[in-house]
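The instructor's notes for this session suggest beginning with a concrete chain rather than abstract definitions. Hand out the sequence below and ask the class to guess, before any prediction is shown, which regions might be ordered.
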Amino acid sequence: MSRVTAVMFGFGAIFGYVLQRVGATDYDAIAKMFLLEDLHLAGVIGVAMLVAGVGLGWIRRARTGVLARYASAVQAKPMKPGLVLGAILFGAGWALTGTCPGTGLAQLGEGKLMALFTVLGMFIGAGAYLRLGPGIEARLRRR
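After discussion, reveal the predicted structure:
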């Protein structure tokens, strides 16, 4: 295993542990968030977005040092017509399964075998997008 792979695996393990500790791998906690009964996880997501935004801003401004080579890789993504449909599908899948890609892998790490179906569905969905996405987006652009 290369050093980069080991570091990435380590960060992934830490991320999964944090997800488990804040309750993000618990279906009931996620359901309560979507039903607006307990907004604890929404707060966790908000803090994560803030940290990611600050981190990405820091990387984008790096002109020298270790982060400078990553600065050009952080670019704004263009708005595409399919993003809205994709967001709706992602949200529906998250609400139905009680997991998103990060939490699905963390649930697998916890030994929750039902997460295997969710992770399998993520790979099937990503494969379907690779195959069908360009055609769907081309149709949406014409409208």
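Then share the key points. DSSP finds seven helices and no strands in the chain. The chain has one domain: 3-38+77-142.
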